Amino acid sequence: MRGLNVALASVNGPGDVKVSNRLYNRSHLEVCYSPSTGHSMIRERALESVIMRTVEQAILVHLHPRTAINITIQEMQSDGLALSASVNAACMALLDAGIQMKTTFAAVTCCITPSGTVIIDPTEAEIQESVAEATFVFESSGEASVLTAHQDGRLSYEDFKKCLHHCQVASKDVFAFYRRMTEKKYQNEIES
Amino acid sequence: MTSLQVWRTFEPDSYYKTFLEHSKRPDSRNLSSFRPINIKVGTVTTAEGSATVRLGHTTVMCGIKAEIATPTLRHPDEGFVVPNVELYPCCSPMFKAGPPGERAIGLSQFLKNVITSAEVLLPSDLCIVPNKFAWCLYCDVVCLNYDGNLYDASLIALMAALQNVLLPEVSYDEESERTTVSPEKTLPLKLKRKPVSSTFTMYSESIQLVDPTAEDEEQGGGEVTLVLLEDGSLCTIHKPGGHSIASNFLDKFIDLARKRVTLVNSAIHKAVAERKV
Fold this sequence. Notes:
The structure holds two protein chains of two kinds.
Chain A: E1 6-15, E2 28-34, H1 42-58, E3 68-77, H2 82-97, E4 105-112, E5 118-120, H3 124-129, E6 132-139, E7 146-153, H4 157-191
Parallel strand pairs in A: 2-3
Antiparallel strand pairs in A: 1-3, 4-5, 4-6, 6-7
Helix pairs in contact in A: 1-2
Chain B: H1 3-10, H2 12-21, E1 37-41, E2 49-55, E3 58-69, E4 80-87, H3 102-118, E5 127-129, E6 133-145, H4 150-162, E7 166-173, E8 178-188, E9 196-202, E10 208-210, H5 214-219, E11 223-228, E12 234-239, H6 251-276
Parallel strand pairs in B: 4-6
Antiparallel strand pairs in B: 1-2, 2-3, 3-6, 5-6, 7-8, 9-10, 9-11, 11-12
Helix pairs in contact in B: 1-2
């Protein structure tokens, strides 16, 4: 949940897979994204593809050959941050499912106003007014390398680097949140 | 079969790696050189605009058909541009017959994003009569031969086809509510900007290859596409997953990409001019 954006993610797997999708050396990943309103169109299918390729880099797929891992994301409310809310929800769902990952990942969206101010986690209204919008997904390693990047709108290269830097700093908050939530979950389990 | 071909068939990974160790690719290109581009405009005579582009062996054809549609209620003075990419089994064994797969949909969405971000065409320019009639440009991009780098090839084909489009003049008589389409009087589209994309594939942390072939894409760990405008500003950056890369990943490519913008746009301009003659 980021501001007014709510995404619900669930993970099923590693489990049975159709013969046509069975891979001898790794798990088959499938992402299903449903928007809050309307049918699933090409925008949603493209989003599924991006999320799948991002998650593929984080999960240790080679540990589960001939299986399938299904990630289902339901967008409950959207206020402009569909991609980043979904990616973060997917990461938390994977952590909750206990699927082995080599890194956690965090998505941050920012937009840049005509005056050059970078706004992290903008609302839909702020995105409409902005000149460009960018979403980055970072790994939790030391140098926070970029897993996924998506930028729309027109901006100079220097502004792009500024956005990237601000998002990198903001991603640390997201990783801290993951840690807090996971600690809370296991603390409850230990106590009960 | 020569021993080199045997090596390539049975050990493709080590074959490829050996080339990279000498900073070359199997097709003898450097890691940062692009393939030659060949553009022919007006190849589909039944379409309002068309172009066929060859990037090495990758062949992509774009045909644009214009239809008159009713604008939406929310945007009554805007027309539509609908890019649609088809990857048929004829172009590569990777693609199966049936509804568009993940790659085709990703490409269609990419083309839509580029057209919207770059504001290539003002949707209001496609309007004929607000609330009643507007042009809807169906841009069908078909891959005829797949050898990597579909992002660049499809965008070049789309831009070249858009510059080849001639829309008939439509006049609307308010009193009689009749529209007359005059096919003899045709007008080209007013394109505000001409974006050009450059793709590179990440083989490892330190090795990146520009303009990947199908083999490069298979061996590599993901592609990054940069779309730039003529003034050097960034229009779209598309990195859908793939290997993670350091945050200064674009520093090396921004200059290469900028040079490519002028090269590609002048090639398209030449092809369009040739057609007019």
